[in-house]
Amino acid sequence: MAQRLALQRLLSLPARGSLACHGRAFGTSAGRRSTFNVQDGSDFQDRVVNSPKPVVVDFHAQWCGPCKILGPRLEKLVAKLEGKVLMAKVDIDDHTDLAIEYEVSAVPTVLAMKNGDVVDKFVGIKDEDQLEAFLKKLIGA
């Protein structure tokens, strides 16, 4: 279990700078740093509840078909906002306690959080126009 958590943390760390591989360097995009996987309750508290920026929280599951459609669509739109909003991904199977605390009864469930408070939410899949409107409302644009 400890090894699995350590590996998950390592894999979900945002890349910084560039990585060298066979003499070639690969840069990182700002969009990638806007999205992160929540590791545990403490990580959620630090990176979501205490965030100075608005955060979109995507409660999802690996087995959920609509989640596999919504997640990348939402990540793309968050990346377009260039750091104005962050996106936290919470796997409900790994973080049942957070799902219960935030009353997630179906996936995908997406929360909009500002200053530690849930200010908006939706359940199910949305098209890009609906997602853009949701994000604009969150950042006040």
TrEMBL record:
SUPFAM superfamilies tied to this protein: Thioredoxin-like
Pfam families: Thioredoxin (PF00085)
Molecular function GO terms recorded: protein-disulfide reductase activity
A single GO cellular-component term on record: mitochondrion
InterPro entries the record matches: Thioredoxin (IPR005746), Thioredoxin-like_sf (IPR036249), Thioredoxin_CS (IPR017937), Thioredoxin_domain (IPR013766)
CDD domains: TRX_family
UniProt keyword Metal-binding present: no
Entry keywords, A to Z: Disulfide bond, Electron transport, Redox-active center, Transport
Gene Ontology biological process terms in this record: cell redox homeostasis
Residues annotated as domain Thioredoxin: 24-140
Similarity section: Belongs to the thioredoxin family.
NCBIfam families to which the protein is assigned, alphabetical: thioredoxin
Name of this protein: Thioredoxin, mitochondrial
